Amino acid sequence: MDLFVAGFITVMETFMWSLTCMAKFPHVQEKVQKELDDNLEGRFPTVDDRPHTPYTDATILEIFRFSSLTPFSLPHAIAYDSVFEGNRVSKLERGRIKNKKKEK
Q: Which InterPro entries does its entry note (predicted)?
């Protein structure tokens, strides 16, 4: 059940971001609508239509990038020193990775 709820929330959030972006950028909405009208001839889109609708495809990818549905995900790190395929992999201590930008 948790997987179903998680999937539903993700889809719902993506849909809400799509509506928000289209409302905020009506010129993008108009261009996507024109591209779909010109290429789909009144039918629902399929995966086969992607090569013919590059602007729509780019818009969807930009909404995915912009929305960032997982801003609070945990960082991935090694929990303890280990060996993987003969290579030693060390656990990093907190704060060990520093920003390499020079401070003024």
A: Cyt_P450, Cyt_P450_E_grp-I, Cyt_P450_sf, Cytochrome_P450_fam2
The contacts of residue 86 (CB under 8 Å, 6+ apart) are none
pLDDT tens, position by position, 10-53: 788 888 999 999 999 999 999 999 999 999 988 999 999 999 99
The ranges assigned to domains in the chain are 1-96
CB atoms inside a 10 Å sphere around CB 9: 11
- 């889809």: which residue's tokens? 11
- CB burial string 46-82: b at 16+ within 10 A, e below: eeebeeebeebeebeeebeeebeeeeeeeeeeeeeee
DSSP 94: T
Give the CA count within 13 Å in the CB-facing half-sphere of 31.
Answer: 13
